[in-house]
């Protein structure tokens, strides 16, 4: 039976190992990037849908506020044609929100209208939204319906009451949906994507209220899990098949005040098209280097049997910590083997360096560059194993939700970074500063007593409360302090005690620090922005 000689065997083994390693790395890279692209697109679509849902809800609330302001002025103007005409004209022109504005008396007859006043004054509106507004006698946003002029619209109204409580009628405004002259259309935008992406709005009856294809306005959407989920009030993302069977990455969010839903979706194929092209470029770029290497191995294999065998075997175990030392021990007594040995050492060092950076990224919060919850847990496990005592300071920004609501999430993120920098200023090089999530931070102070940590917490609180934040004013923090093993034998219990002390500080008025087991700690008043 014919046997392969050692030179050919080593060559075949090297070729097979190289190909398998390359294929495995190529496949793993593809799968990782594939998952990342899908997850990023889903999250981007969810965030986009949530933003538009919030904007739509805010738009409708602002429209209701305009009508409410007008309703408060109208009781004394009813029956005064010129003043009513001036008011509806003002409402129509003020912000361009409404396509039509009406003042209707308690008998259902139009007393003033813009822009169709001449033809409507004195008549009774028969549209569905108008009839519902007259009967409701309360603020109303109607379900979308087709108006008398053939427009799909939504009708907003505010009741008018006399000072003695008598119902006098209502002031209402019509907003066109899916029309180029509609203010809501201008808010949502056209979004004419070239890759098959879609943005649409559905009402509680699954009718399309907005779509980049105007011909589909009013169409009923069925069989779409994203639509079903958003009409149940859910916000999220998922992979779905649209009505034509196209695989879509959909993000969705409900419009709080109306029962509508906003869905943003992009074809999976469009998301992954760039990945396919990138992987092909990587493959083509690798081939010119791979083929000459095989030719060189073919001619040199007889001369490099021993060192190549050692290097090939070692290369199969790169994941072990001893791999680098094993490569160093190979006696490469000729130039080519020495270069291969050095290349493997460089590659291994590069790989370990990348893995080290990846591990560092895994324990770092991307916004504040502080240690994240995973890194916090690793430090706690290490210090506990070393029996190294430490103090814990749990910190939370006071009224942070108001910062986000008043100034937006971009300013909120800058406030988080502002507080993070101050935490770094107050801490020592041996301390660990972590962001647990949201506006919550944790400081671990090794070899620090409970009283010493309390002093640090008070210095931190004072520093933050007197440093002007990105909002232009001041923010404050509350803190809870505990110690391991002084406060409890269990690390988990110590963290829980620090949180409980933090919440006690919150309940006690905020802008204060509370020590675990302490009932009350005062603080000076600080202006809060």
UniProtKB/TrEMBL annotation:
CDD domains linked to this entry: GGDEF, PDC1_HK_sensor, PDC2_HK_sensor
InterPro entries from the UniProt entry: dCache_1, Diguanylate_Cyclase, GGDEF_dom, Nucleotide_cyclase, Rev_trsase/Diguanyl_cyclase, Sensor-like_sf
Record-annotated GGDEF domain positions: 388-518
Top-level lineage group: Bacteria
A GO term, aspect molecular function: diguanylate cyclase activity
Catalytic reactions of this protein: 2 GTP = 3',3'-c-di-GMP + 2 diphosphate
SUPFAM superfamilies: Nucleotide cyclase, Sensory domain-like
EC number: 2.7.7.65
Keywords recorded for this protein, A-Z: Cell membrane, Membrane, Transmembrane, Transmembrane helix
GO cellular component, one term: plasma membrane
Main location: membrane
Membrane topology per record: Multi-pass membrane protein
Cofactor(s) this protein cannot do without: Mg(2+)
Record field: transmembrane: 278-300
Compartments where found: Cell inner membrane; Cell membrane
GO biological process: cell adhesion involved in single-species biofilm formation; negative regulation of bacterial-type flagellum-dependent cell motility
PANTHER family, sorted: DIGUANYLATE CYCLASE DGCM-RELATED (PTHR45138:SF9), REGULATORY COMPONENTS OF SENSORY TRANSDUCTION SYSTEM (PTHR45138)
Protein name: diguanylate cyclase
